What we know:
B: alpha/beta, five-stranded mixed sheet, two-stranded antiparallel ribbon, C: three-stranded antiparallel sheet
Amino acid sequence: MDEGLRSELSKQGVFTTTLEDLYNWGRKNSVWPLGFGLACCAIEMIAASMARWDLARFGAEVFRPSPRQADLMIVAGTVTKKMAPQVVRLYNQMPEPKYVIAMGACAISGGPFKQGYNVLKGIDRYLPVDVHIPGCPPRPEALLHAFMTLQRKIDEQALTGAQRPRHLVAEAPSEFPVPEFGAHDLVPPANPEIWQPPEVVRGE
Amino acid sequence: METLDQIKARVEAAFPGASVEIVPNAGVGGQRSLLVDHAHALDVARFLREDPALRLDYASNVTGVDWLDAVIKEKRKVKQVIAGVEREIEETTERRRPGYLEVVYHLYSMELKHGPLVLRLRTANRADNARVPSLTPVWRAAEFQEREAYDLYGIIFDGHPDLRRILMWDEFRDFPMRKDYVEPDDYEYEPTPHDDVLAKAKRHYQP
Amino acid sequence: MNSEPAKLENAPLAKPYELRPKALADGGQPGELLEISMGPQHPSTHGVFRMDVVLDGERVVKLKPVFGYLHRNHEKIGENTTYLGSMPYTDRLDYFCSLTSNWAYALAVEKLAGLQAPERAEYIRVITAELTRLQNHISLVGFLLQDMGASGTPLMYAFREREKILDLFESLTGARMMCNYMRFGGCRCDLPPGWLDQARQVVGEFPRFLDEFEALLSGNEILLSRTQGVGALPPELAVNAGITGPMLRASGVNYDIRKVDKYGIYDRFDFRVPLGDHGDVYDRYMMRVLEMRASLKILEAALRDIPDGPIMDPKSKLRGFRPRAGEVYGRIESPKGELGFYLISDGSPKPCRYRVRPPSFINLTILEDMCLGHYVADAVIILGSVDIVMGEVDR
C-alpha cells in the first residue's frame, strides 16, 4: 500500500496494515515461556518476572506449566547429561512456532562447569537456540534484553520466501532426536545435524 | 568428650578381638580418627551411639575417599654404630602401599553437644573387593550418603537397604569420583591453554 | 548386589499406609495404584527434582526421590582446581545463600591452614551471613505459599524484600547472587562507604515488613488448615536421619551450630534459637519467621559494634597457597542446616579430597516418611517446607 495513502487513512481514523505485520505483532507480544528452571539462572528468571523487572510488560509473564501451551523455552541453568533427554523431550512436546533462549554460561557452553563429566557442554548440541545470553547468572536486565531481541527476531520474520519461519516450512523438523543414556556418556553426544564442533584457532 | 585413646581402649574392652586403630592426622588441627575392621564395625557404631558418655547419635558427614596405589617414603632416625661411635642417621624406607577405598563418617552428639569423632572403614582393594559394611542401620543419615559413595566411588555397602545409583543414571558404568576415572573428551579448549589443560588440549586436537 | 536388606533399628520407616481401610471394610475392592513421576520438570519441585510417587486415590503410598538432574560435579572440579579456585563454585552450591557457602568453605580451609580472620572480617561475615539467612527464609516462605496455591502475591512481596538485600550484596561484592566474597583469612574487599548505613536502613525496615507478612499469613485460616498436622517429623527420627537446620528445630531438638560450635564470633551475640514442638509444616514455616527475627537481632548488634581494622589475616597468601598435609572438617549453620566441607590436603596446591556435606540433600532422607498417607497435594508443600536447592542437593 502506498505510504501516503496509509498516512492519510490513519488521519481519518482508519488503520491499515499487512497480514504479516499483524501476525507477527500478535506473536511477538504473547511469547509464553515454559515454566521450568534448571539451576541458578532460574532464580534470576523468577526475579525478572517479579515486580521489580516485571516481565509482564513484554507479554511474557504467563509461565506455562505444560509444554503444550508454551511458545518459548528458557533454558535457565546448567543442563546435565542426566537432564538433557528430558529437555529435548520437553522441546519436542512444544507446538510450533517455538523458540529457545539459552540463558547463562552453562546453557551456552557448560560455563564454569565445563569440565564436569555429567555436564552437557551447551544445549545447542541438541536444540536450535535463537538467543544466547552470557552471564553467570545473567542479570534480569539481560533476560529482558534477550526477550526484546527475540521479539525483534519474530517481528522481522517474513512469512513467505526462503527466510520464512520454521513452522511454515512443511519439511523442516519440529522434533529432534532424544539422546539416550549410554554406559559412559549420552548417545549420541551431540546431534550432528544441528551442531558441529567449532573451529578453535589456537595460538602456538 | 573423652580422648580418642580412651575411646579406643573402651571399644577394645567392650569387643575383644576388634581391631581398632588410630589414624594420625598431620594437619594443623590434628583431628585423629578411628579405623575399625569390618567384622566389628556395626557393633562399634552401635556402641558409639548408645554409650551414655558418648551418645554419638548424629552421623553428620559420610563420604568416600579414593587412595591410589602409592609408594610411601618414610624417614626414620636410626642409631647405628659406625666405627665404634654411636651415631644417629636418617634412613629412608620405601614401601608400596596398595590402593584402597575409604569411607569416612563424622559423628557428633546432638544430645551432649560434642564431637566430632571420625570413624573410618577401608575396603580391601579398589577392584573386586570394594566392600564395607553399611552403617545405615545405625544412623539413617548415612542412607543417601552411602548410596552416593556407591555411585561415585563404587564402594559396595553390605546391608544397605536400597543400594542404587543416586546421582548418575542407572545405565552408567563408571565410578566418576575415582582418581583414575577418564572423563569423556567432549569439549573445546580455550585458545591459550596452559599446564594440565595444555596437555589435555594437545590430546584433544591430535589428529 | 547387596545382601539381605537391613532393618533400621532406631529409626523405623514410617508405618506403611493401609490401602483405603474404610472402603475395604465396607466390602469395597482396593483400587488400582497409580504410579506417577513428578519432575524433573514440575512447577512445584523447586528445581530439577523428581519424585516417583505411588498413589492410592490421592494418598501417597510410596515416594522415592530421584536425584542427579543437576549433578554438575562440584566435588570432582574441586579436586582438579586450586583451593581458591573452588571459592566461586561454592557460590553455585546453594545459589540462594552464596555468602554462607563461602564462609563454610573459608572456615574449613582456615582450619586446615591455621589462619584466623581479623575482627572486622568476622563481623562482616556475620552481617552478610545473617542477611543471607533473611533473604533465604523470606524466599522460602514465598515459595512455600506458592506451592499452597497462593500464586504470586506472597512470593512477590518476598522478592520485593529480597531485592533490597541483594542490592546490599551487589554494592559490597559486585554480584547479586554469586558473591565470591570470602577469602581464606578474611574477606575480599572492605565495605564501601555508606554501606553500613544502607544496611542499617534495610534491617530497620525489615521488622515492619515481617509484621505485615505475618499478619497476612500466620493466622490465615487456609494456611493453618493446609499446614497443621501435615508432614510431622518426630524428633528421634530427625536426629537419627541427620536432619539439621530449621527443620530439626521445628521438631523440638535444640541444635544450632551457631550456639554449639560458636564459630566466628557468634558467642558475642545474644539471640534465641526458636524451637517447635509438632514438627509439622506449620512449625517449619514458623521456624523460618522466628529465625528471621532472631537474625535481625544479631544484625542490629553486629551493625552497631563493627570495629575498624584490617580485613585479611596477614599470614594468608593467595598465590602459591599450599596447606600442610592433613584433613579437616569445617561446618557452619547455613540457612538450610549444617553445611560442612571435608578437605584432605596432601601438601599440593589442590585438595586431594574435596567433599561438601549438603544439608538439603540429607534433609530429604525422610521425605518419604513424612509424606506417607498424606494427599499428593500435601507432598508438594512438605517438600516445600524442607527447603531444598538443587544446586546443593546434587552438587
